[in-house]
Amino acid sequence: KCGFTVVGQYGETLEIPCNNGAIKAEDVLITKWKYDKGEGLPGDLLVRQKNQNISISATDEYKGRVSMAANSSLLLSAAKLTDQRTFTCMVVGGADITEYPVNVVIYKTPAGLEISDKVEELEIGRLTKLGTCIAEDANPAANITWLKNNIPLVADGKGISIQTSVVVDPATGLSTTSSILEYTAEREDTDAEFTCRTHHTMGGQIMSTSETFTITYSTENIVLHVIAQDPLIEGDNVTLKCVADGNPAPTSFNFHLKGELVKVENTDTYTITNVSRDTTGEYKCSLIDNPTLEASEDITVNYLDINLSPSGKIVKRAGETLDLNLLIDASGESKVSWTKVKAIFYTAKPKSMKKHLSLLLTVLKQLSKQHGEKGQYKVLICEAEGSPKPVVSWSINGTSLDESPFINGKITHKITVVPTANLTVSCTVTNDFGIDTRTINVSSRKSLMAQCYLLFTDQPEDSDQTKLVVGVVVGLLIATVIIGLAYWLYMKKSKQGSWKTGEKENGSSEEEKKLEEKVEENSQKAEV
């Protein structure tokens, strides 16, 4: 009867069933396995009789490689390609003798798949041998497919050529397949991944390691890049970078700097330092070996010049007019803002450029007056305005020190003094932005009182200078010498005299008038 086929893996143990495993051991008297040696000659392997041990008669290549399973299957170890033949199971049951032939096929997947003889680089437009893909020791011989980015390549006789060959090992009978790929590269093949693979009869596939190749081509386009801060302003640096699309990329360039030609080697950049408004203009770069291939870019340097008139320190009295004139020279449209933050400053802002000008404005305020009790002491007042909180110090020691809370940038410091001689007193105010001192003359006369006002202001946070606005108000209140007491005594005396002599009690009106005029004259002569 016709046999069936069993497939085995090369080098593994192969189980060859008897009658496809449908043998009943209790009905079998004898089971024997034999094989076709060729030319119609059989070769005995082994036999088992009922209730007896297995008897092995195999010789030559099967000696020590065969045994019988409990279900009468033939077990063949270390399968080889030479085992691809017909094995027959003969069964004797009673008076019947039946044979079951089995055809054996041995497969082997390739030992590996790799690309060898790889080219170093591919030139655009030229058919070049890329490499050889080898699948070793397979049965049947492996079929190899080339792929680019996982897409199969098909020979077209033009840009793609594939040549395949198979070599059989005479000792093992295994086949080695070699496939050579010739390929015409394109610019888009840069970074492309080339692989080869094989699908085996037993199923599954083997993929080689991917390979990338350098694609060489001449430069067709160049681009000039300007690398700088935005906006580019005077004092900045700007770097010119020339980028060419050739591979390998050029390493030497010409840079055209507003009429000046500069050649650079082993670099593609050129840096212009400390640019000015005169740097504005067109710049170019080109290939040294092909000057006609060039690229250009315009560079614009932004600038801003401002002049404030008047400037410096300005002294004005409260209520007076202050006229300011601002001159602007800028590369673009500018925006001007005036801000008073206990001072006056200016901002001009074309795009993201920003400059400040400031002036120091001192405002003199009116003197205020204050009397001490019975004219025995003087109260000196020092008022400061600024931020952070100013620190106040005096050149003399006093009593009744009083410092007001620091509110809205203002602080007032008072001391009480009883001068025994004429003094010059200093009040010094300091903070992180500056220091200033104001003085006041203090008389030893009774009933004199002084007030000193010192005003500081802070500068804007982003200004380059310290802004102090100082207002000093110095006042001396001169009290009238106590003439009234003398006048009262005089009037009393006059009244007493009149009473004694019978004159009118209200005294002499003419003398009284003269005395009042004297008092007023003395008051007007008092010093301030």
TrEMBL record:
Protein keywords: Adaptive immunity, Cell adhesion, Cell membrane, Cell projection, Disulfide bond, Glycoprotein, Immunity, Immunoglobulin domain, Membrane, Repeat, Transmembrane, Transmembrane helix
- Which regions span the lipid bilayer? 468-490
> In what residue span(s) does the Ig-like domain sit?
11-105, 110-214, 220-300, 350-443
Tell me the compartments it is located in: Cell membrane; Cell projection, Axon; Cell projection, Dendrite
Q: Where is the composition biased (Basic and acidic residues)?
A: 501-528
Q: What name is this protein filed under? A: Activated leukocyte cell adhesion molecule b
Might you name a Gene Ontology BP term for this protein? cell adhesion
One Gene Ontology cellular component? axon
User: What Pfam families does its record include?
Assistant: C2-set_2, I-set, Ig_3
Q: How does it sit in the membrane?
A: Single-pass type I membrane protein
Question: Is the Flavoprotein keyword given for this protein?
Answer: no
SMART domains documented for this protein? IG, IGc2
Q: Where is this region: Disordered?
A: 495-528
